[in-house]
Structures are given as C-alpha cells and as structure tokens.
Write a structure and sequence with these properties.
With 337 residues, the protein is an alpha/beta fold. It has 13 helices and 10 strands. It starts with a strand and ends in an 8-residue tail after the last helix. The model has no long low-confidence stretch (mean pLDDT 93).
Length: 337
C-alpha cells in the first residue's frame, strides 16, 4: 500500500504515488479501461488524483469524475489545473486572467462532479497577465470554497517566490509546484527546490520515468516496441524524443543492476528515486492498464542507500539534464489562443 506525505507547509496529506491522467484518459485508453485503472489506484491506497482541463480538451476531467463517482469525497484529494487553451480556443479561453480562472474552475468542477478541488494549479506562468490579477483570482476561488489550496506547474524559482509572497498577502497558501523531474531531468534541483523550501512549497513531479525511458523497455539501436509511447503520434512520440538517443538508452540499461539489488523493476526504481528528494511530496504516475498501477505502488516506502544513489549518478553521467534555465526556456512566451 502507498505511503502519504504532507503537501508543502500545509496540513494536507496526499498519497506519495499520485494517479495522473495526462495522455491517457479520453485519448490513449478507452473509458472502461480508464475506470479500471482508477479502481486499481483506489485499491492500492492511492487517494490523490491529478488532471487538467486541457487534457484531451476537457474530456480527461469528465472521465476521471465518472470513474470516481460514488466514492466518499472527503477520502479523496482531487487536483486539476488551468492555463492552456480549452473549448473553442477563443481569445479568453487560455491564460491566467481573472476571467479565464473563474470560468475554468466552474467548468472543471462540473466535469469532475464535485463542489471543490483540493488543489487548483496554474498550469504555466502567464506572461501576459499581471501576477497580482492571477493571485487575486486564485484567492477568490479559495474564498468561494471551490479550491482548498493553490499550486503551480513549471514555474521558475523567482516566479514561485513572487507567487508565494502575493498569496501570503492575500491570505491563502501556495503549497505546491508540479515540474518534470526524473533521474534524467534534474533541472529543478539547483534553483526551484531551494526556493520552494524557503516558501513552504513542495513538488508533485511528473514524468518520473522520463516518459517511460527509465523503464528500460527502449533499447539502443532497436525500434521502439509497438504500442509504446515512442510510437504514439497523438503526442507521446514528441514528448519522449529528447530521451531517445542511443547514448541515453545505453546509460539507462546500466541501471538494471541497481534495480535488481533493490528487488525492483527499473520503472519502480525510477519512481522510488524521485521520492528520495525530501522536497518531493508525490510522484505522478499514469497507466494504460490496471496492473501498471499495482506495480508502480511498490516504489512507495523504498529507501535507496547512498551508495546506490551514487551508482545511479555514475551510470547516467553525461546524459542528465541539469540546467535550471530549461524551466524558463520551456515556458510559453505568449498565450497560444
């Protein structure tokens, strides 16, 4: 069964393995399979579910809401996000303006079939809207009881500090950051994590398996397995491409002895590794089959000894991305609608 951790400087506990439905619900898997995966997550002790309005252009929220119908709401932590274009993609169907935030939370709650979300997250930083306007809108969402806490995703260290300061002035808590983080993608370690610790924010990390590369199923010099993310033309192949060089795939194969020593699969090792960071509250995992959920949960509660952490670093030396500027580089320079 999964363990639980506090999220940021708050009293909210979440499951350290959190179920996310990016690229799966409403897209890659049929609704009955998605529901089976959610049931498997609940059976494994996962209580925390993360989605976003943009996933499958709002359909993923609907699928998750349907899958959780009938569950005791107080026993769940449901997270969603706002920023990216949704609906007909009109001029105000994107960003973090007051208009888009207040309209989006209502749409998300309807699709999820709930009166509130536990965490409402800014899916990116909006360079076209004053931060004061964004944070005031989030404050109002909290005061209306539509969200209990506020988080961000892929914000820089300076943006997190500024957002947390405004949140404090406005009387609510910014408690989380949702960045990409894995053995291969460590760009948050030098700046985002220290800033987050300063202001009481912790990480809910996505892609702990580097889009599946750290599972070891992709072999250097060989074609990607049929049906894998690297062959998915709906978005998966594009997101995984940065990790698909023969150099990286060869280095990843050197992790197998570490996984074997711990009695873990390589995928479980990848999830356990991100949870060794004391600023990480949860690792987001998705699934296209219920059995994947049960396997992922085995990473919960694992302690990787220092000598094996060093062995991991040595195995991946030369293929790890650490540049903190990558967070800013990946940020939208303007709204897309």
């Amino acid at each position: 069964m999964v363990n639980y951790r506090y999220l940021g400087n708050s009293g909210l506990k979440i499951s350290e393995i959190t179920y996310g439905n990016w690229l799966t619900h409403g897209s890659q898997v049929e609704n009955d399979v998605a529901t089976a995966c959610v049931r498997a997550a609940l059976d494994a002790g996962i209580t925390t579910f993360d989605t976003a309005d943009v996933y499958a252009n709002t359909v993923a929220e609907q699928v998750l809401g349907d899958a959780l119908k009938g569950e005791r709401r107080e026993s769940l932590e449901i997270f969603t996000k706002v920023y990216w274009p949704t609906g007909p993609k009109g001029p105000n169907d994107t960003g973090l303006s007051r208009k888009h935030i207040l309209e989006s939370i209502n749409g998300s709650l309807t699709r999820l079939g709930t009166d509130y979300v536990d965490l409402y997250q800014a899916h990116r930083y909006d360079v076209e809207t004053p931060l004061e306007e964004t944070m005031q809108a989030f404050a109002d969402v909290v005061r209306q009881g539509k969200a209990l806490y506020i988080g961000v995703s892929e914000w820089t260290a300076d943006q997190i500090r500024a957002g947390a300061a405004l949140a404090k002035e406005l009387g609510f808590q910014l408690i989380s950051s949702q960045p990409q983080y894995s053995m291969l993608w460590r760009v948050i370690e030098d700046e985002v994590v220290p800033a987050s610790k300063e202001v009481g924010v912790s990480q809910i990390v996505w892609s702990p398996m580097a889009q599946g590369v750290l599972s070891g199923k992709y072999l250097p010099g060989q074609a990607a397995p049929a049906g894998s993310r690297a062959t998915d033309q709906k978005g998966g192949a594009q997101t995984i491409s940065r990790f698909m060089s023969d150099e990286t795939l060869t280095a990843v194969q050197n992790l197998k002895p570490v996984a074997d020593e711990l009695g873990l699969s390589m995928a479980q090792l990848a999830v356990a590794w991100v949870l060794q960071n004391d600023n990480v509250a949860a690792a987001l995992v998705g699934a296209s089959r219920p059995e994947q959920v049960a396997e992922n949960v085995k990473a919960s509660g694992v302690t990787i000894p220092d000598e094996l952490l060093k062995q991991i670093d040595e195995a991946l030396d030369g293929v790890v991305e650490r540049d903190p500027a990558k967070t800013l580089e990946g940020m939208p320079k303007k709204r897309l609608a």
